[in-house]
Amino acid sequence: MFVVLILLSAVVGVVDASTVALKAKVGEPATLFLGGEAEEWHRVLKDGTEQHIKKCTGSMEPPACNTWLNSAGDAVGSGAIVKENGDLYIKSVKHEDAGNYQSPQIKGRTGTLPGGGTYGTAAPLLTLFVED
Q1: C-alpha dist (Å) from residue 28 to 23, 24, 71, 97
Q2: Which domain of life is it from (predicted)?
Q3: Residue 33 placed within a domain
C-alpha cells in the first residue's frame, strides 16, 4: 500500500507539471484550455516562429486582439479567438497551427511541503499535433 501511495504521488506531481499533448484534425475546430482565465496566448510553431494573440476587451478590435501577431506586432493569422473564459478557440485547424501553446498569465506553482521541503511546478504547456 505504501508503494502505491508513493507511485500515485509521483504521478500526480508529474501530471501537474507536464506538457499536455492535444490532437486536432485539419479543417476542424479546436479549443485549447489551461484551466485559468488567460487574456493572452503565446505559441511557438514547429518552424520556431513565435506568435501571440490577445482577448478583445473594452474597445479593443482586431488586429489588436483576436489576431495572431508576430514578434514585430504584424498580423500573421486570423481564425482564432480568445474566449471570455480564457480558452483559445481555433475555428479551422491548419497544419501550420501545430506547435506549443501557453499563456503568460497562467503561472507555475510553488509551495512548502510538510517537514519544511519545497516544491515547484512549471507553467502548463499545451502541444498541439495536427493530423489530416
Answers
A1: 11, 7, 27, 12
A2: Eukaryota
A3: yes
CATH number at residue 56: 2.60.40.10
Residue 6 forms part of a structural domain: no
Query: Are 53 and 62 a contacting pair, CB within 8 Å?
Result: no
pLDDT in tens, 31-86: 999 877 899 999 999 999 999 999 999 999 999 999 999 999 999 988 999 999 99
Instruction: Report whether 8 contacts 15 (CB < 8 A).
Output: no
Full domain range(s) for residue 127: 17-131
Question: Is the residue at 10 inside a domain?
Answer: no
What nine digits make up the cell of 116? 519544511
Q: What is the pLDDT of residue 106?
A: 87
Residue 84 lies in a domain: yes
- pTM higher than the cut 0.90: no
